[in-house]
User: Fold these one by one.
Assistant:
Number 1:
Amino acid sequence: MKLEDLRVDGTRLRQSLEQMAKIGATAGGGVQRLALSDEDREARDLFVSWLKELDLTVTVDQMGNIFGRRPGTRDELAPITSGSHVDSQPKGGRFDGILGVLSMLEVMRTLHDHKVQTERPIVIVDWTNEEGSRFAPAMVSSGVWAGALELDWAYGRTDINGKRQGDELERIGYQGDVPCKHSPVHAYYEVHIEQGPVLEREHKTIGAPKGILCLHWYDIYLEGEANQVGPTPMEGRHDALCAAAEMVLAVNELPAKMGGNMVATVGEIQNEPNSRNIIPDKVHFTVDIRSWDDDLALRSWDDLKQGFETIAKRRGCPIRIEETWRVQHSPFDERLVQRVMDNAEAIGYPALRMVSGAGHDASYANQVCPTCMIFVPSVGGRSHVEVEETSWEDCEAGANVLLHCVLQSAAES
Ligand code: GLV
Ligand code: MN
Ligand code: MN
């Protein structure tokens, strides 16, 4: 068979996705595999067992990133790397992250079955804690790997129960001793569901994002004065939740106010003591701002922050603001983006250039090596929800495009 006629086994890819989806399966048809939970460990164990079946050299680094390496005939050359993440959102979907990991696994299996030897080595990766939902920020381990985030800072991040990320990594047995530090990579590819409505609307099978928006995360802490709700008059209250409510709406109104292309969201909130008959005295909430225009996102934050301070003062609720994390927008390698388009066309899949509004480990990979992504459609544009869906044919299409992108990059000297 000519190499350009090689195709992945879509049935096997589907079976692997279905098997993985049993780990942390939720009643609503999704999965919950929070980073460094027992479910994350179980998914990792299964993943590693699959890597071993292919005789890959498996390494685990200090952040628990798992790599499986397949040697090349010119093994001294920098590898082609691809993967994504096995962790999920709370009540997340069966495709986010895991599709990219298992698409690359299917590529590895296909090469193995057909005894294809590549010039460059090929590496599959599962990045630890892409979601950032249990431990903020997201993409933390590709961030450390790329040298953009500090290992000790990452270890010290805590979840809502005060558990440290480093301790949880150790607890599940995935704190490796290989330094979490990048070495040269010739090309990084990541297959992912689009997580938005564009491909479906445009009737395209493959998306070739030109890059990823910037992501800016903030944590806001408000102090109020708790009191019995009945006897306490409305005047003179210091209700931290009311202050937060005004701020949440200010976030929602920010993109329209600032103009330009931007989204802004409050997705998480904790209210204390959270009793219907106590005035709330402690509120924490998060702010997520994204744009292709990093300066617009920063200017918008300055405006928002000023507004927060005014609200906090007026309501007599002291405010503490943490500027938790920023990653700049990531313009991908144009040559690789074109390669995705070309391979989609060569195989016969309608393809579209687009932008990624979702964050991905490709963002940090892009800071240290030529990078791009391969998107497949999300049914109804829904993601980070249990009903997240992508057709098996589209999953197979993404893996086929990845196969040929990997083969072509691996043949470059
Ligand atoms: C990652 O899942 C993101 O928040 O886009
Ligand atoms: Mn993802
Ligand atoms: Mn996600």
Number 2:
Amino acid sequence: MNYITFALAKGRLADMTMELLEKIGITCDEMKEKSRKLIFTNEDLKIKFFLSKASDVPTYVEYGAADIGIIGKDTLLEEKRNICETLDLGFGKCRFVVAGKKETAERFNKSNDLRVATKYPNIAKEYFYKKKHQTVEIVKLNGSVELGPIVGLSDVIVDIVETGSTLKENGLEVLAEICPVSARLVVNPVSMKLESERIIKIINGLKSLKAV
Ligand code: PRP
């Protein structure tokens, strides 16, 4: 029997995924030990797990290095990879928004020379160019994007908001909602065919948990 390999995003998303998988009998004791290891195996179940940077999960799944990935819809929208999105897992809920200083609200709707800072340039382009038909300059940052409007790098940001604390504590407000985000189970299209029985069993197991 071949291994089924899962790519997980390091951190909270991976922890929540393992909690969910445990409920359908997919466990990995090796992962519970504190270590710097990146790959873990359950030999009995013939399942491997590896931990990667969130934005790389869709890449591993597209190239078949992982059969299954669990990743936020934010990363999926940004990475646009050729993979099958099969299930909304219902955790890791947050939302994509445009945010900025309160006084930017009017300019945000009218101006064609806004500068937008974001970790998600594709999503920002999609929203401003295709949905709002607004010409903006998009500046890619790699984190702490809330700094953009505060230090004068940008007028607004496109980012995910979960509790809203980061915006609030930095004097920023939501100016527009883009879309909701949650964790998704994605599958490599070839694995979906070659290992369909085992993969569908996992998907159905997780689906049945949602129904409870
Ligand atoms: C994310 C996001 C916001 C923050 C929102 O950043 O980019 O900055 O969380 O969460 P909140 O609404 O609960 O405050 P992350 O923690 O991933 O760090 P980063 O900005 O350095 O990427």
